[in-house]
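Structure first, sequence second, as always.
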């Protein structure tokens, strides 16, 4: 009897120990599940933050570029990221398998985004280099244009100087009023002819060859002594009447010229003027008085 009693006590003790052990294991398992659930909750929140950040980065990348094709690709990837974010938000923390799947998807999204970041950074760098190169080219073009403009202006000034240097020069202009006896007339009423003499100066820059010299004799009332309305020559985009036209062979050396005007019109006392033209330029002027 005593033996049976001891067996019962022993069995009860073993059962109690087993119950305690099972209870401990159950509590520990629950605690581990709670810890795992908390860990998944934290990880899920971190994943949601990353998905949100990645979606925002896709938005930022689209603002940095102007390539329509690339913008469409980035928009597609952003929509995919937002869809995965919505899936993650709807998953329970106890669904370890789904969370792990979305974690792998997150790694893929991160990798793809990094690729586009590097690509767009390279494009932006290239665009900056091209923009700088374009600014350099434009600056050089403007400098070249400015130099050409300055050179054209200098050339124009030089041409004007050369033209001025090559222009004939009439000096020592004298007008002698003559009477019918071939002597100097003392009074205006006795003048029947003007003898006009002048010197064409030496000019090695001037073009040699046959040249037409035009003389204009202007009366005190500014009218020009002229034999015919057809006697005109071009000067500064207009036609001027001339009194005398004399053709000479210019050699570049100093040359004495004499011309004559037969008086066939009424002359009156006053100050007269004579202007001499050649090659479209005024090369000399003088004045004389008739009493």
């Amino acid at each position: 009897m005593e033996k049976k009693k001891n067996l019962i006590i022993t069995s009860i003790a073993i059962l109690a120990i087993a119950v305690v052990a099972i209870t401990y294991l159950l509590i520990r398992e629950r605690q581990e599940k709670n810890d795992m659930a908390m860990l998944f909750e934290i990880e899920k929140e971190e994943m949601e933050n990353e998905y949100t950040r990645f979606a925002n980065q896709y938005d930022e990348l689209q603002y940095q570029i102007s390539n329509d094709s690339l913008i469409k690709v980035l928009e597609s990837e952003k929509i995919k990221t937002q869809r995965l974010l919505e899936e993650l938000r709807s998953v329970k923390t106890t669904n370890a398998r789904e969370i792990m799947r979305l974690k792998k998807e997150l790694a893929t999204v991160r990798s793809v985004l990094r690729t586009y970041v590097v690509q767009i950074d390279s494009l932006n760098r290239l665009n900056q280099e091209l923009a700088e190169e374009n600014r350099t080219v434009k600056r050089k073009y403007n400098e070249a244009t400015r130099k050409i403009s300055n050179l054209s202006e200098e050339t124009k000034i030089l041409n004007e100087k050369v033209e001025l240097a090559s222009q004939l020069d009439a000096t020592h202009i004298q007008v002698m009023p003559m009477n019918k006896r071939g002597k100097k007339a003392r009074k205006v009423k006795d003048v029947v002819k003007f003898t006009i003499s002048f010197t064409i100066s030496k000019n090695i820059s001037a073009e040699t060859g046959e040249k037409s010299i035009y003389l204009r004799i202007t009366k005190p009332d500014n009218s020009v002594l002229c034999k015919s309305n057809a006697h005109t020559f071009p000067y500064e985009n207009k036609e001027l009447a001339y009194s005398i036209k004399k053709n000479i062979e210019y050699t570049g050396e100093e040359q004495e010229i004499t011309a004559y005007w037969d008086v066939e019109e009424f002359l009156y006392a006053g100050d007269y003027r004579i202007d001499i033209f050649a090659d479209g330029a005024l090369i000399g002027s003088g004045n004389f008085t008739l009493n």
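Margin note: The CA atoms of residues 217 and 223 lie 8 Å apart.
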